[in-house]
Amino acid sequence: MIFACLTLVLCSAAMAADRTPKKFDMPFAATTKEEALAWQKQVRAKLLEFVQRQEPRYPLEEVPLAVQVGPAQDKGDYTLSVVSFQGNNKTGTRFEGLLAVPKQKGPLPAMICLHGHGGSAQQVFDPKGLYHGFAERFAQGGYVVFAPTLGHRKYAAMALWDLMRAVEVLRSRPEVDPARIGVAGLSLGGEWTMWLAACDERLKAAVVSGWLCTAEGILSVPNCACWQLPGLLELADIAEIYLLIAPRPVLFESAERDVYLPIRYTKQGHARIRAGYKVFSAEEAAQQDVFPGQHEWHGTMAYPMIDKVLGGRAAQVQSKEN
Ligand SMILES: [Zn+2]
Q1: Domains of the chain (ranges plus CATH)?
Q2: pLDDT tens-digit map of 73-97
Q3: Mean residue pLDDT across the chain
Q4: How far is ligand 1, taken at its centre, from the CA of residue 117, in Å?
Q5: CB 113 within 8 A of CB 141
Q6: Strand pairing report for 94-102 and 78-86
Q7: How many Å lie between the centroid of ligand 1 and the Cα of residue 88?
Q8: Nearest to residue 151, comparing CAs of 141, 139, 159?
Q9: Distance of alpha carbon 223 from alpha carbon 140, whole angstroms
Q10: pTM listed for this prediction
């Protein structure tokens, strides 16, 4: 199972539901755009502070990115290389990923594509499986794609600085238009997408697949506890964290039979996000793709949405799944 950690299976849903705060410290209550912008600034600063407490951030001048690019494999419409970069640490730990570069004249739009629990860069390119090859689809649609393999940590948010470094990897590429970078991910990758898009305004669009829910919803079923960064649960409902992305476009993929994210809670979460986006006069920029599937990538609304915002043509690519 991609989302459940064994340690948590024993966690009682009833007990967990009791842990949903009755009152949050900084709920979204803005009624004007000015208030909403002020709320974003305060909440983003809080989130960065919470992450910093767990994982100190090193600037690139202190710990350089030191990108290494392996030989390029010909994949038809694009080339694929193993790329590694120095992570946000002083232990020398590097992260590997797959970089796809379309055989087109740049500057090109780009996507960060993120795997879930137990996943890898290879899996997000694989047309078979939960990810339905969404990274490959973006590459075939004219996007430079970087899919890092980041692994599991005590708290998902501890990967934030490394996610921002992955954005730097894309920005360092001559083919990439730095003004057109987006992010997409499934499950834990959806959670990382939330963190990255919420905290880094360089991301212009986001697809959060299999992660949108309310705190009450996530706590109502057994789920890995890595989302519970100390301070986060009390700050605001997890669905409101997406309001830090506003008014940038965001799409949520929510499967009707996702056992980790009960659909009624994901719909409640989306309604709350839409209401928040409305304060930015951008209600239509927060869409939800509810589909009759399980905990998996869908793509039906995601490809056209990303194409519209970033200017690629992933929606026109023939699916390789059949
Ligand atoms: Zn986890």
Answers
A1: 31-316 (3.40.50.1820)
A2: 999 999 999 999 999 999 999 999 9
A3: 93
A4: 6
A5: no
A6: antiparallel
A7: 20
A8: 159
A9: 34
A10: 0.94
